[in-house]
């Protein structure tokens, strides 16, 4: 492939495709250069280093994920929104394992602050949870619970970690039901209790 037309955007597109094909951890600048038929050095005018490339991959994949979730939850609230959110999250993780892995890396907070996609993720997630009557610090706690549950399930499922004969989809549905129950009956902290 000729060097002409090589851009940061094209590199990120190729990188996320490569991640889905071979695994996020196998995306290197050398592998990407081979994909474009150029020398490694040719990529440095578009990305600073591997860390920069992976941060761009995380932002791209995070944007794709929240677009899918936003479309799924539009016009829904409560359990319907939670179920749509959860199912869209899991579907993305299953369909794009390398991209999903990219969404889990820690990236520089200055990039996060400047990312419209990640701001949108916060708005949609917190908006869904506010429908359960939650505010801070319960919102942060609930976001952590959802992320830990969804991510843990997706990682274990992808690794074949569920060996029992019970259907994994049925278990997923029960997990979402349990989250709905937990969110509906969120425990109040002592400081939240009304004083007599």
Main sheet properties: none
Question: Tally of extended strands?
Answer: 0
Total number of helical segments? 9
Regions with pLDDT < 50 over 5+ consecutive residues? Answer: none
The end-to-end distance, rounded to whole angstroms, is 74 Å
3D shape: globular
- Global mean pLDDT: 90
How large, in whole angstroms, is the Cα Rg? 20 Å
Helix content: 55-70%
How much of the residues is beta strand, in percent?
under 5%
Looking at how many chains there are and whether they match, the oligomeric state comes to single chain
Structural class, by secondary structure, is: mainly alpha
* H and E string: HHHHHHHHH
Kindly describe this structure.
With 196 residues, the protein is an all-alpha fold. It has helices at residues 8-22, 29-36, 50-73, 78-95, 97-102, 109-113, 116-130, 138-158, 168-184. Helix 4 (78-95) packs across helix 9. The termini are far apart. The model has no long low-confidence stretch (mean pLDDT 90).
Short description, anyone?
This protein has 196 residues and is mainly α. It is 66% helix and 0% strand.
Topology:
Elements: H1 8-22, H2 29-36, H3 50-73, H4 78-95, H5 97-102, H6 109-113, H7 116-130, H8 138-158, H9 168-184
Helix pairs in contact: 1-3, 3-4, 3-7, 4-8, 4-9, 8-9
What keyword list fits this structure?
mainly alpha, single chain, 196 residues
């Amino acid at each position: 492939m000729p060097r002409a037309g090589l851009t940061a955007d094209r590199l990120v597109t190729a990188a996320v495709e490569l991640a889905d094909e071979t695994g996020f951890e196998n995306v290197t600048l050398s592998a990407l250069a081979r994909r474009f038929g150029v020398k490694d050095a040719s990529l440095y005018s578009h990305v600073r280093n591997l860390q920069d490339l992976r941060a761009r991959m995380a932002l791209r994949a995070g944007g794709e994920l929240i677009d899918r979730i936003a479309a799924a939850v539009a016009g829904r609230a409560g359990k319907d929104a939670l179920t749509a959110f959860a199912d869209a999250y899991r579907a993305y993780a299953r369909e794009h394992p390398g991209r999903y892995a990219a969404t889990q890396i820690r990236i520089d907070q200055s990039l996060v602050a400047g990312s419209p996609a990640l701001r949108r993720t916060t708005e949609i997630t917190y908006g869904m949870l506010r429908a359960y009557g939650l505010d801070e610090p319960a919102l942060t706690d609930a976001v952590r619970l959802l992320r830990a549950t969804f991510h843990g399930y997706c990682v274990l499922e992808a690794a074949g970690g569920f060996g029992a004969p019970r259907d994994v989809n049925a278990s997923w549905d029960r997990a979402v039901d349990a989250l709905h129950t937990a969110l509906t009956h969120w425990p109040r902290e002592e400081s939240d209790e009304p004083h007599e």
